[in-house]
Amino acid sequence: ARNMRFVIGAILGLLVGAVCAVMAYNAISQRHAYSRGLMTVMGQALKQANDAAASTDCTNDGHALAKLSLLADDIETAIPGDGTPDRVFHQYSMDLKKQVEAAKTSTCTDRKQALTDVKNACSACHRDYK
């Protein structure tokens, strides 16, 4: 009887611990949902712009560069925590905005390189912060 109480207590302890671990994991995951969503939408807009740059009419990107510009303006608000970027992240953000603006004003012949520069600005930040 004493061993049975110990086994039941151990099983209940494991169940409560598992439930608490799942709840903590979900809370942590939701904290990063906005930044993951923003990056996903930015990735899709960059893909649309690249697809348009490879076509005969590079300007027909479905407003992908306009979306990228708006999303780049919001990137610093996607930081988990209090939303205050450190100096390095702020510099990466400014570089991304600069590259997106350059891509928006580029000619069709320069558009692919300009979009590569945008991708490189994303990759530089991801190297340090992803």
Kindly describe this structure.
This protein is an all-alpha fold. The chain contains five helices and no strands. The chain has helices at residues 2-31, 33-53, 64-74, 87-104, 108-129. The longest helix is centred in the N-terminal third of the chain and has 30 residues, at 2-31. The protein is elongated and about 80 Å long. The termini are far apart.
Give the number of DSSP strands.
0
Amount of helix: over 70%
Low-pLDDT segments = none
What sort of overall outline do the alpha carbons produce when their principal axes are compared?
elongated
Mean pLDDT across the residues is: 88
Radius of gyration equals 23 Å
The percent range for strand residues is under 5%
**Helix and strand string, N-terminal first?**
HHHHH
SSE class: mainly alpha
The main sheet comes to:
none
**Cα distance, first to last residue?**
53 Å
Supply the number of helical segments: 5
Care to give the gist of this entry?
With 130 residues, this protein is mostly helical.
Salient structural properties:
130 residues, mainly alpha, 5 helices, 0% strand
Q: How do the strands and helices of this protein lay out in sequence?
A:
Layout: H1 2-31, H2 33-53, H3 64-74, H4 87-104, H5 108-129
Helix pairs in contact: 2-3, 2-5, 3-4, 4-5
